[in-house]
């Protein structure tokens, strides 16, 4: 078969077997398992090393810094030079992060491990997710977008569940947790080497140079709608990941690593399931449901902080996962349907930059507020601000986005 691209949208005309896009999705899942495997261990490290809530959020934000720096270049390099040359260094960063987590005994090592895991995630949310859609072919664009989105949140949920289960059963769980993850990442490396990953672009233009991520002007509105809903959703889940274990341990009196990991797992498994449930809805409806879920989640955070009710916190985490999952599905669906193939990874980068900037800044700012005025007030303040942001995004989508399947 010819490997030429459809000239008007840039999608390959090759019809790949469906299993190939599932194998590509496993690459995304494997890296996202690493991204949240440390979640149940933060309270352990905080006690063993000795650092504040503000330092904890800085460690968490190192991941966002690595992710954002990677997003600035990974998408456009992937669209120009191919998926494999970008994915391989990303997997290498993930493997090094595993080793650093396994031996971490200082804040610096934790920051470095988080930074490198952010680099790896930045690679898979651009080149990895684009590869899933590439291998889906022109007839499976919406299905491939769903699989790409689900692969991310499934991995994000499996990581803390794996870590929490091992931490509950072993006195010294850190090395076993990251040994298992190292093996998982090696399977993803094998997938990168065997898949027929194509290159959309060409390196014949001698004037090409790196630039800030961008998409064609006709696609600006698609990215704006995606960021408006995905951004608040992933900010809510980032808060639960960064400070949820502290809320459980210090405010609600629940210190079990399995509870912390299980809460994060349920949050992301909900994000997975809700996308399958919503896959036949219009993008506009998906977005509106996502904004509503994020608003309700923040109400749950405020309730948990004021009433010391762990059930309210778990419900808030489930709703946060729904908000992220729906915002992510809507954003990736618009990209899959409307953005040309030779700009797809770069569009993924723009969507994720728009989401992860507030996801990094707001929890860090909240960590400093907590150190000054207390955990309860900091959590309530975070919830109030994010409710306003999510409501604004939902209102914009309601007014301006037409029904789009």
CATH topology type: Growth Hormone, Chain: A
Mean model confidence by pLDDT: 86
What is the chain-wise order of helices and strands?
HHHHHHHHHHHHH
What is the assigned CATH homologous superfamily? Answer: MFS general substrate transporter like domains
The CATH architecture assignment turns out to be Up-down Bundle
Please give the number of β-strands: 0
| Secondary structure category | mainly alpha
Question: What is the CATH top level name?
Answer: Mainly Alpha
**Helical proportion, percent range:** over 70%
Helical region count?
Answer: 13
Q: Which overall shape is indicated by the principal axes computed on the Cα atoms?
A: globular
Distance between the terminal alpha carbons, to the nearest Å? 30 Å
Sheet with most strands = none
The low-pLDDT segments are 1-13
Beta percentage is: under 5%
Structural features, described:
There is one protein chain. This protein has helices spanning 18-37, 42-50, 53-81, 84-103, 107-136, 141-169, 174-194, 220-251, 257-278, 283-307, 310-338, 344-373, 375-400. With 405 residues, the chain is mainly alpha-helical. It has one domain (18-200, 214-400): Growth Hormone, Chain: A.
Secondary structure layout plus pairing:
Blueprint: H1 18-37, H2 42-50, H3 53-81, H4 84-103, H5 107-136, H6 141-169, H7 174-194, H8 220-251, H9 257-278, H10 283-307, H11 310-338, H12 344-373, H13 375-400
Helix pairs in contact: 1-5, 1-6, 1-7, 3-4, 3-5, 3-12, 4-5, 4-7, 5-6, 5-12, 6-9, 6-11, 8-9, 8-10, 8-11, 8-12, 8-13, 9-11, 10-11, 10-13, 11-12, 12-13
């Amino acid at each position: 078969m010819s490997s030429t691209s459809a000239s008007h949208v840039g999608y390959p005309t090759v019809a790949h077997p469906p299993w190939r896009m599932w194998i590509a999705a496993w690459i995304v899942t494997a890296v996202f398992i690493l991204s949240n495997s440390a979640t149940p261990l933060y309270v352990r490290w905080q006690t063993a090393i000795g650092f504040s809530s503000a330092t904890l959020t800085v460690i968490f934000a190192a991941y966002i810094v690595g992710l954002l720096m990677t997003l600035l270049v990974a998408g456009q390099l992937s669209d120009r030079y191919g998926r494999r040359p970008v994915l391989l260094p990303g997997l290498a960063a993930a493997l090094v992060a595993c080793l650093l987590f396994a031996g971490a005994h200082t804040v610096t090592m934790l920051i470095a491990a988080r930074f490198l895991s952010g680099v790896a995630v930045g690679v898979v949310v651009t080149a990895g997710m684009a590869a899933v859609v590439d291998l889906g072919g022109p007839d499976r664009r919406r299905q491939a977008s769903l699989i790409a989105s689900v692969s991310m949140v499934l991995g994000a949920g499996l990581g803390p569940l794996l870590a929490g289960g091992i931490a509950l059963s072993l006195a010294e769980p850190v090395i076993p947790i990251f040994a298992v993850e190292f093996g998982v990442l090696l399977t993803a490396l094998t997938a990168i080497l065997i898949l027929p990953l194509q290159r959309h672009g060409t390196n014949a233009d001698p004037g090409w140079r790196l630039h800030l991520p961008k998409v064609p002007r006709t696609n600006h509105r698609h990215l704006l709608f995606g960021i408006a809903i995905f951004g608040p959703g992933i900010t809510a889940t980032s808060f639960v990941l960064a400070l949820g274990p502290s809320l459980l341990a210090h405010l609600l009196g629940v210190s079990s690593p399995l509870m912390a990991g299980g809460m994060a797992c349920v949050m992301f498994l909900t994000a997975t399931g809700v996308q399958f449930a919503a896959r036949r809805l219009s993008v506009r409806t998906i977005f509106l449901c996502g904004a509503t879920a994020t608003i309700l989640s923040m109400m749950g955070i405020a309730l948990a902080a004021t009433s010391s009710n762990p059930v309210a916190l778990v419900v808030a985490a489930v709703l946060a996962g729904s908000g992220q999952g729906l915002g992510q599905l809507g954003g990736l669906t618009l990209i899959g349907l409307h953005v040309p193939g030779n700009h797809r990874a770069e569009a993924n980068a723009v969507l994720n930059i728009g989401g992860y900037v507030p996801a990094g800044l707001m929890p860090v700012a909240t960590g400093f507020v907590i150190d000054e005025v207390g955990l309860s007030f900091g959590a309530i303040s975070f919830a109030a601000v994010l409710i306003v942001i999510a409501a604004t995004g939902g209102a914009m989508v309601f007014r301006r986005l037409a029904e789009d399947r």
